[in-house]
């Protein structure tokens, strides 16, 4: 038997899941499988804390914070630390790689950043949040957002070897 809480949560998931997956995909630098895991973890935590979510002054900020916390928790898992990323799957023909694909290069460069730096960039530049809203999502001070963003942009410029196009960010 569905309760009113279950129905409200169901409606929330139906209306917001796609946006949560998009945000999680950006936070994971394009790792679709990890993004799905993050959304599932975040939705589980959100269901448990549903009354607090409903009382929140900024529900969007609350959800962003839950996603960032889920990413941080995921990175701390022992089996994640023992996984080794590989550029190509062994025993498979290499996929055609297009040199100069900026979005692919940006995705790879984003993977080089620590999760909180990546989250600062995602919220500031992909979602155009101001410093205060980004700080709220990350659970840190506005000064930390500014320094994390500046350091992240410097790293991206170094990794991408681009000075002019990112200088405007």
From TrEMBL:
Pfam families: Sigma70_r2 (PF04542), Sigma70_r4_2 (PF08281). Residues 106-156 form the RNA polymerase sigma factor 70 region 4 type domain. Residues 19-80 form the RNA polymerase sigma-70 region domain. InterPro entries: RNA_pol_sigma-70-like, RNA_pol_sigma-70_dom, RNA_pol_sigma-E_actinobac, RNA_pol_sigma70_r2, RNA_pol_sigma70_r4_t2, RNA_pol_sigma_r2, RNA_pol_sigma_r3/r4-like, WH-like_DNA-bd_sf. Keywords: DNA-binding, Sigma factor, Transcription, Transcription regulation. Belongs to the sigma-70 factor family. ECF subfamily. This is RNA polymerase sigma24 factor. It comes from Actinoplanes couchii.
